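Supplementary notes (optional reading)

For those who missed the lab, this is the record we used. Protein: S-(Hydroxymethyl)mycothiol dehydrogenase. Length: 364 residues.
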Amino acid sequence: MPAEVQGVIARAKGEPVSLETVIVPDPGPGEAVVSVRACGVCHTDLHYREGGINDEFPFLLGHEAAGYVEQVGEGVTDLEPGDYVILNWRAVCGTCRACKRGKPWYCFSTFNAAKPMTLTDGTELSAALGIGAFLERTLVHSGQCTKVNKEAEPAVAGLLGCGVMAGLGAAINTGAVTRGDSVAVIGCGGVGDAAIAGAALAGAGTIIAVDTDDRKLTWAKEFGATATLNTKGKSEEEVVEAIQDLTNSFGADVVIDAVGRPETWRQAFYGRDLAGTVVLVGVPTPDMRLDMPLIDFFARGGSLKSSWYGDCLPSRDFPMLVDLYLQGRLPLDKFVTERIALDGVEQAFERMHHGDVLRSVVVF
């Protein structure tokens, strides 16, 4: 029977979100209804509210979530009620050209639930990243549910659903950081600190945290940064020189740009070793452009990569990372700055805007 629950809705570009009644239908074939226990407030949700993703308002926000399966639809054989899951927005198809080539993290045809969630007047909602989890129950495709060890608190585990996974994966999967590498991470918010944690987990020798905010640099040390660099007031050239000074004048083996601006990408490009790797995980806006000498690309070699969702495969990565957290080897709990109620999302956006939190987490 369809459920009526309160959800966080963005009705128009730039307007404050509202709590409204949402109709969650029973699951159809291949779908599941999940009882959400916690959902992180991600910057992507703010992008949706600001119209930065698309203009398909109204949006049902929330996507970094963990909870328990309540119902499954016809044909679902790998889930059952009571399973503890993290929701993901990369439910791979298994049949597209990327999946057939053994690279499902590049899947071109990921799944979402076919049935829409609606407002009481029948208005269909656009679920953020195909999830929509700022409500007590949500409808998703069964492939968006990744089973993990239920010993991990939902407020912590759910963060792997987006931002933390993006940063960890940027270091471990995309950047292929390995033992002894030198790594610089530009931008030490949630994604950047997750990249630092990933580099530390992989055994990097030198991990340089780069930001303009001393408070964020202090946080970065808690995730494994061995050196910090405050770039406030520094030119791009000075930033590059400082990174080189911290890496025996060579530059870092891997530089991760968790900001996504032309100036930070150039810092990453020139701040790496000659054969080093640049990983872009910060999301640029469509209007941003680069103007650089082509000869510099030819002369320096190495790799220039973009990381989308940390090149993760949820079924592979989520259970492993949760287990590492439970073993005390991955400090996922340090990302949770505060636990809030469902009606606190708009205020959480404001704190996020001012850089006061790594993650606010809605707890049900």
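If you only remember one thing from this example: The mean pLDDT is 96.
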